[in-house]
Amino acid sequence: MSDLNALTLAGARDKLVAKEITSVELTEACLAAIEGSDNLNAFVHKTPEIALDQARAADQRLAKGSQQDPAPALCGLPLGIKDLFCTKGVPSQAASAILKGFKPEYESTVSQNLLDAGAVMLGKLNMDEFAMGSSNETSVYGDTVNPWKVDDRRLTPGGSSGGSAGAVAADLCLAATGTDTGGSIRQPAAFTGTVGIKPTYGRCSRWGIVAFASSLDQAGPITKSVRDAAIMLEAMCGHDPKDSTSSELPVPNFEALLTGDIRGQKIGIPKEYRMDGMPDEIEALWRDGAAKLADAGAEMVDISLPHTKYALPAYYVIAPAEASSNLARYDGVRYGHRATLDAGDGITEMYEKTRAEGFGAEVQRRVMVGTYVLSAGFYDAYYNRARKVRALIKQDFDTVFAAGVDAILAPTTPSAAFGLGEMQNADPLQMYLNDVFTVTVNLAGLPGVSVPAGLDAQGLPLGLQLIGRPWEEGDLLNCALALERAVGFSQKPNKWW
Amino acid sequence: MAIDTETAARVAKLARIKVEDSDLPALAGEFNAILGFIEQLNEVDVSGIEPMTSVTPMRLKRRVDAVTDGDQQDKIRANAPDFREGFFAVPKVVE
Question: Residues 393..452 of A with a Cβ closer than 8 Å to B: which?
Answer without folding.
Answer: 394, 427-429, 432, 444-445
